[in-house]
Design goal:
Elements (H helix, E strand, L loop, with lengths): L15 E4 H15 L3 E5 L15 H5 L4 E3 L4 H13 L3 E5 L10 H8 L2 H4 L9 E6 L14 H5 L5 E4 L3 H13 L4 E6 L6 E4 L12 E4 L4 E5 L3 H13 L5 E5 L2 E3 L4 H10 L2 E8 L4 H13 L8 E5 L10 H4 L3 H12 L2
Parallel strand pairs: 2-3, 2-4, 4-5, 5-7, 6-7, 10-11, 10-13, 13-14
Antiparallel strand pairs: 1-8, 6-12, 9-11
């Protein structure tokens, strides 16, 4: 069932201004406090508090037996988490940077994704793999990848991505409570953007997308770091009297496309935005599904503003590689030109 478009709750006594990084830390802390079976593990997550300080202070407060510094061995981290999950724990693994996930790829797709099915439902795999992903931080290669489409293709895995502090706080806790393995992609270049968070306000379900800005001219859908880019593009378009409807997909597997279908049936146009390359991607799947479901409503082809089908470039070139406000608005203009 699709989630309705929700307004942010008005400020209350419990509301605080937090960054995505702080919200993730708060979400981990809440899960550790609520369930003694929750463990946090990864490279430098303990004493250092993670390279982005997402796990800052957790080892000090919960002990080394619950917040574990691991060797530099992603395959070992995921393999150990699988064993812990079999024994009833809920491990949360941090992959330090997106490009470092590939040494653990076999454990994720061959074991973690398959054990529930292989055991005919006897074994649950409540494992969360946190992945800071995407570019925009001026990093060297293997630190700015967008591998989410690879994992969205794998049966047995759930794949989600937060775009703001409120979702970061709630979605991480919901992912930890899920009995299926969840790949949790965090937009690292948005870690320090702020928003109001009221921990007492009820969250929307984990596997729902939602409208974050209403409009009637063109539907624009994105996830993770590109949601902010699309909202900025919508604000710029509004100055020219053009109202874009922006949808935060939030969940990539399973995809919740009902809000997208509903929007496209009204606007007749869709622009998809992601940092990941276009070919064989999440945006490819969405474009196909929208064509199938909304063919007679479309006034233009589904268009995309994405990263290019190349390896991620050196930091001096990433500004030209990543979709920005101008590339989103260019796609909007091309859609309206049909």
């Amino acid at each position: 069932m699709a989630a309705p478009a929700l307004e942010r709750p008005t400020a209350t006594a419990g509301t605080q201004t937090v960054t995505i990084a702080k919200a993730l830390n708060m979400g981990l802390r809440a899960s550790l406090e609520r369930d003694p079976k929750v463990l946090v593990m990864g490279e430098d997550v303990g004493k250092l508090g993670g390279v982005f300080r997402i796990t800052d202070g957790l080892q000090k407060d919960f002990g080394e037996h619950r917040v574990l510094d691991t060797p530099l061995a992603e395959s070992g981290i995921i393999g150990a988490a699988i064993g812990l999950a079999i024994r009833g724990y809920r491990p949360v693994c941090e992959i330090q940077f997106d490009g470092f996930i590939f040494p653990g790829f076999d454990q994720i797709v061959s074991q973690l994704a398959k054990l529930h099915f292989r055991s005919q439902g006897k074994l649950k795999m409540p494992v969360v793999v946190r992945v800071p992903f995407g570019g925009g931080i001026g990093a060297v290669e293997h630190h700015s990848e967008s591998p989410e489409s690879l994992f969205a293709h794998i049966g047995g895995l759930k794949v989600v991505s937060c775009s703001n502090p409120v979702d970061a706080y709630w979605m991480l806790q919901q992912a930890i409570e899920c009995d299926d393995p969840v790949l949790f992609f965090e937009p690292k270049r948005r870690y320090y953007e702020k928003a109001e968070l009221d921990p007492s306000a009820p969250p929307i379900p984990l596997f729902n997308s939602r409208v974050v800005r209403a409009g009637s001219a063109v539907t624009v859908a994105a996830y993770g770091p590109m949601v902010r880019t699309c909202l900025d593009a919508a604000a710029a378009a509004a100055e020219d009297g053009l109202e874009l409807e922006v949808i935060d997909l939030r969940t990539l597997s399973p995809l919740d496309l009902d809000p997208v279908f509903e929007s496209v049936r009204r606007t007749g146009r869709l622009v998809l935005v992601s940092e990941a390359p276009a070919e064989a991607s999440v945006t490819s799947e969405i474009a196909t599904r929208v064509q199938q479901e909304c063919f007679y409503s479309l006034e233009a082809p589904v268009l995309r503003a994405t990263g290019f089908d190349t390896p991620y470039p050196p930091s001096k070139l990433e500004e030209g590689y990543l979709p920005d406000l101008d590339r989103v608005l260019d796609a909007v203009d091309r859609s309206l030109a049909y």
